[in-house]
Write a structure and sequence with these properties.
The chain is of the alpha/beta class. The chain is built from five helices and five strands, in the order E-H-E-H-E-H-H-E-E-H. It has a five-stranded parallel sheet, sandwiched between helices. Strand 1, helix 1 and strand 2 form a beta-alpha-beta unit. The two termini are 23 Å apart.
Length: 139
């Protein structure tokens, strides 16, 4: 499978540190990741920047946690991704802490999740395999 040009990391602000960690690992393996607030600079309207990123990115990764399930913005981002044909087969739910994703959207039952609740090499390997990448030391 062709790797993504850019991955949109949808996450709750409660999970910002985890989003940073995941973006770092992806970047070390040649996968660019967009996430707020890193990509939004002063004076920009964050809603507009998130919308532009959703239109530009070619893969949607949903970081699932109790905070994400409660987040109105995560819900909006997911709803947008679900109706965009370019995201067909390119939505990956990633469980980062135990929660009930059905409370976010019942549609998530139809997607294979990647379990990153334990941030082990094996868990990161499972995530990177989505794009045909192998987890390993960065040269």
């Amino acid at each position: 499978m062709r790797g993504p040009v850019e991955v949109f990391l949808s996450h709750s602000s409660d999970d910002a540190e985890t989003a940073i960690e995941i973006a770092r690992v992806l970047g070390e393996h040649g996968i660019s990741a967009w996430y707020a607030p890193r990509e939004i600079v002063g004076s920009q309207k964050w809603q507009d920047e998130i919308g532009a990123a959703l239109r530009r990115c070619d893969w949607f990764v949903l970081l699932l946690s109790p905070g994400a399930v409660r987040s109105m913005w995560v819900r909006r981002e997911l709803q947008y991704a679900l109706i965009q044909s370019r995201y067909d087969g390119r939505i990956t739910p990633v469980l980062i802490s135990p929660c009930d994703p059905d409370n976010l959207s019942w549609v998530l039952q139809t997607f294979q999740q990647v379990d990153l609740t334990r941030r082990t090499e094996g868990a990161y390997s499972n995530l990177l395999r989505v794009w045909g990448k192998e987890f390993g030391p960065v040269a």
